[in-house]
Amino acid sequence: MLVLVINCGSSSVKYDLIQTTDEMGVCRGVVERIGAVTSIVKHEPAGRESSKDTKVIANHSEALQEIMNFLLSSDNEIISDISDIKAVGHRVVHGGEMFKDSVLIDDVVKEAIEQAFDLAPLHNPPNLKGIEAAQDRLPDIPHVAVFDTAFHHSLPPHAYLYGIPNRLYRRHKIRRYGFHGTSHYFVSRQYYKLRKKSKSKTNVITCHLGNGASISAIKGGESIDTSMGFTPLSGMVMGTRSGDLDPSILFYIVEKEELQLNSLHAMLNRHSGLLGISGYASDMRDLISEAKNGDRRCQQAIDVFCYQIKKYIGSYMGVMNGCDAVIFTAGIGENSPLVRKKALEQMDHLGIEIDEQKNNELVPGKTERISTDASKVDVMVIPTNEELVIAIDAAKIASASDQSPWV
Ligand code: ADP
Q1: Res 220 pLDDT > 90
Q2: Substitution candidate for ligand 1 out of 241, 335, 340 with most atoms within 8 A of CB
Q3: At what angle do helices 124-137 and 60-72 cross, to 10 degrees?
Q4: What string of DSSP letters covers 174-201?
Q5: pLDDT, tens digit, for every residue of 389-403?
C-alpha cells in the first residue's frame, strides 16, 4: 500500500511516501521555514536526483499543496493520480493517557489531540494543523495518527509517577509519558528479528541519540521505563535542551537572573544542553571537532553527554536485572564511534565489551553488532526508521486488517 507519512513542526512539513508492501521509500522531502519571507523546499525521489528550491509558502496547507504538486507532476513520474495514495500516517507527539495505539483520525481523535495541546504546546498544535491540511488535500482516504508516546503506555505507575501531590496527577495528568516511542519500538523489533530472540524473554536498552535524546528500558517487548518524562525536555542532556535539573534551580535562576517564565522556557529548551555547556554548538560533529582542537568546554559537553548515557544504561540494567542488548540509534547513536565508546567504556563488570575495530569501522547507515564475541551483552547499532513504523501502522489501520498493530 502506498502511504504518505507526514511530520509537521511549527514551521516545517516533512513527508515520506512509502510503499509498505516492500517497505521501500518512493519519495521524501521537506518544506522548511513556512511563513518566513522565503521557504525552502526539498524533494528526494528514491534513486534520482534531489531538488532544492526557495518559494513563498505561507502556511501548512500551502506546504501540503506544494508536496502534492511535486508528487503528481508528470515530469517527476512519482504517482500518476492522487488515488494512488491509499492512506496518510501522521506523527503526533503527545497522545496523553488516552492513546495507547495508533488510531484512525476522526473528529473525536482531533479533539483529543487538541486537548493535549497544554501537554505539548510546541508539538501538538502543528501536528493538528498538518492533519487538517492533509485532510483538505486528501479527503477521501483514511488518515491515521501515530503517537510518540504510545509505545510507553506500558510504563508501570512506579516508573511514571513523580514525587509530587497525587492530586496533580489526577487533576492535570502530570506524570512521565516518554517520547520517541516509534523509534524505540522499531529498533527493539529489528534486534529481535536480527538475533532471532524471543521478545518475551529479551531485555534491551535502546539509546535514541539525536538532537533530542532518550533512553528506554524494554522488557519482554514492553517499555517499562524511559528517560524523557512529562515533556521531551527532561531526561538526559540534549542538543539544546537541558534534560533533568534539580527543580530548585528554576526558582534560583528566576530570582538571580530576573527572568520571566517564557524566557526560562526558551533558555531550557533552546539555549541549554550541549549548546549551553559548550557555549559553542549543539551539533555533536562540531563539538567533536572543536574538542580535538583543544576546546575544554566542548570536551566537557561531550563528557557530560556520554556520562549520562552510561548512568541510564547502568540504572536500566539494574531495573531489568541485566539486559541482552544495548542498541544505539539516531544521528549521534548511528554515526559517532566516539560517543558509543565513551558511553560504554569500563562496563565489562556488567558484561558490556565493545569491539573497538568494529565500532570504528562501522559504515554509517548499516546495522551491526559492535560488541566483542566475549561480551555477554550485545552492543548494536541499528538505524531507526520512524517513518516506516508510521506507514505500516497507517496501512494496517487503513485496511482494517489489524486494529492493534503494537505487537
Ligand atoms: P533529530 O533529533 O533532529 O532527528 P538526528 O537524529 O538527525 O536529529 O541527529 C542529529 C545529531 O546527530 C547532531 O548532533 C549531529 O551532529 C549528529 N551526527 C550526525 N552525524 C554525525 C557524525 N558523523 N558524528 C557525530 N555526530 C553526528
Answers
A1: yes
A2: 335
A3: 50
A4: -S-----HHHHHHHHHHHHHHTT--GGG
A5: 999 999 999 998 544
Block residue for cell numbers 522531502: 29
- Domains plus CATH for the chain? 2-147 (3.30.420.40), 197-386 (3.30.420.40)
What is d(CA 97, CA 188) in angstroms, rounded to the nearest whole number?
A: 23
How far is residue 117's CA from residue 39's CA, in Å, rounded to a whole number?
A: 26
User: Cell match 536480527: residue?
Assistant: 194
Distance CA 148, CA 93 (A): 5
Residue with cell 565489551: 353
Which residue type, as a one-letter code, is found at position 374?
A
Q: How far apart are CA 379 and CA 205, in angstroms?
A: 10
Distance CA 326, CA 348 (A): 13
Paired sense of beta strands 87-92 and 51-55, if any? unpaired
> Ligand 1: distance of its center to the CA of 7 in Å?
18
Output Rg (C-alpha) for the chain, integer angstroms: 21
Counting from 1 in the atom list of ligand 1, the atom nearest the Cα of 211 is 2
Say if CB 207 and CB 328 are below 8 A apart.
yes
The three-class DSSP label of residue 101 is: coil
**Ligand 1 shell residues, CB under 6 Å:** 210-212, 239, 283-285, 288, 330-332, 335-336
Catalytic entry in 16, 148, 225, 295 = 148
Residue of 12, 336, 361, 363 with the most ligand 1 atoms within 8 Å of its CB, for mutation: 336
pLDDT above 70 covers a percentage of the chain that reads: 98
Cell numbers representing residue 34 in the block: 513556512
371 has which bridge partners? 354
Threshold 0.90, pTM exceeds: yes
Q: By the 8 A CB rule, do 18 and 44 touch?
A: no
Specify whether the CB–CB gap between 384 and 187 falls below 8 A. Answer: yes
Catalytic-residue membership of 348: no
